[in-house]
Amino acid sequence: MERVERNALNKLNYDQTFAQASSSEEKSAIKFLISLYRGNFMNLSLSLFFLIIKSAPVYVLPIVTSNIINIASNPGTHATRDLWINFAVISVIILQNIPTHTWYISFMSKAIRHVEAGIRSSLVRKLQQLSITYHRDLQAGRLQAKVIRDVEAVEQLSKQLMLSLFPAIINIIVAIVLTAMNSWTVSSFFVVTIPASIALVTVFRKKIRKTNKEFRKQIEQMSSIMSEMVEMIPVTRAHGLENVEIERMDDSLRTLQGKGQRLDIVEAYFGASNWVTFQFFQVLCLMFTAFLAFQGKIPVGNIVMYQGFFGMILGSVSGLITVYPNMAKGFESIHSITEILRSKEIEHNQGKLKLSEIRGDFSFQNVQLIYPGNEHHVLEEVSLEVKAGECIAFVGESGAGKSTILNLVIGFLDPTGGKVCVDGVNLAEVDLREYRRFLSVVPQTNILFSGTIRENITYGLPDITEQQIRKAVQMANLEELIERLPNGLETMVGEHGGKLSGGQRQRIAIARALIRDPKVIILDEATSALDNASEFHVQKAMQELIKGRTTFIVAHRLSTIRDADRIVVMKRGRIAEVGTFDELIARKGEFYNLKELQ
């Protein structure tokens, strides 16, 4: 059953949904919502069926009340048995509400919860497909707000539709039909209320949508600032800047408070206008039916019946208008979610060449790179041949293009001119997901998740043996650390590895890279943030890591790359010099100047 549920989630094809979406935001949101419920229409149908059955007391009670009043007011033409029949009928109809209401909620919940999980699953898959550039531009706090708050708002929208919209529509239809069966004149009066409700929604719709959008964007902004504040707490406390951060957060909260108040006021005007309008209609209905009874055109008991039906209609329409602001929030959250799902900034791998093996030869052929919206080249006329198993170090001042070259090797960036080839094949023609199986990356700031050391080392590799783990631990110079810890490999590292030192985290990252037995190693300033003792241990681990593998290193400490096969000196996006450590020192060029500065 779980496998079926999982497969159903995977079939949520948001690309197809939006390819067919119209330019109208509301129509697009409605299409999106309907598309999510494909495969769940049976549950929805059963839920609506039980909704009608369980709502029967609401439909029947005005009729029974009218019957009892008419029987009581004309005892000569009725027997006491008629009263008991009406009482028995309404009692049975009321009691059946217990099982039918439970079934109504059960089938509804099954559909809605499936959709809620489906949206989050779609967002997670899309986030994994989006380009690294997209993730760099979009703050993590905003993403969290979309995945958590906006999906929850869409779930609430679904509940409002099932708990308010559909019951209201059914109640209105049933009330008008039952009234029409008794009096076309009264039912015609009832129908007039529908244009009034449409007019109210039309008047307030744009204002509600606008204030909802502003409030939602401010929530995302606040979430982003909150996320940054939590990350910055060690720096804030260390520099005594608590009040600065509190004031920054308070500014955001005050803005959010103001936008929230404006939203509340708009909804208050909307709700009050709704209440006054329909109370006025209720009084008109009472006067109208009383006038008909006064003229003898309907029995007196029918006044109560028509008031009951009209009250049902007004209650339904009023309920719809009352929940409209919440539904508007749900539709606004759909627009927020679709900002992610509609994004075209994804990595396209379908139909590309799947590499079953690589040697590790790389060729940079007149590579150029310009970021969108930027006139200046990040890389310009970069040409370099790298042999399999060779260790290449990139040095240069900040902004020279060193890390950009590593991102080209990983496939995070595509050159805007020239090409990067692996084993003679253009990376642009390669399925990067398969290609990256042969890579391991050790960045400057390693990201560990809040699991055990074992789980962080074997991340994504379920079939790793104990022998492989021990070998990786030994090669990463982690044995002494593991032995000192009370739980060894099962020690929890804390969020982002917060319970470990920088050097310890870096060696765990190296063990994670080693256990994958990669063909290509990428080290991005892997020792720049470490003290001398930690750097010594990490350097020993790195020597094991790069043996026999094509290695790309970015380093600021020039002493750490003395043993590199070649050093490439970058300057303003170009290659200024290439050679061994000793050759470049003897040349007394750019590399020599950098070494002298250190």
Automatic annotation (TrEMBL):
Residues 362-597 form the ABC transporter domain. It is a multi-pass membrane protein. GO terms for molecular function: ATP binding. Keywords: ATP-binding, Membrane, Nucleotide-binding, Transmembrane, Transmembrane helix. The chain crosses the membrane at residues 41-64, 84-104, 161-180, 186-204, 268-292, 304-324. Its main location: membrane. Pfam families: ABC_membrane (PF00664), ABC_tran (PF00005). It is found in: Cell membrane. Residues 46-329 form the ABC transmembrane type-1 domain. InterPro entries: AAA+_ATPase, ABC1_TM_dom, ABC1_TM_sf, ABC_transporter-like_ATP-bd, ABC_transporter-like_CS, P-loop_NTPase, Type_1_exporter. This is ABC transporter ATP-binding protein. It comes from Paenibacillus solisilvae.
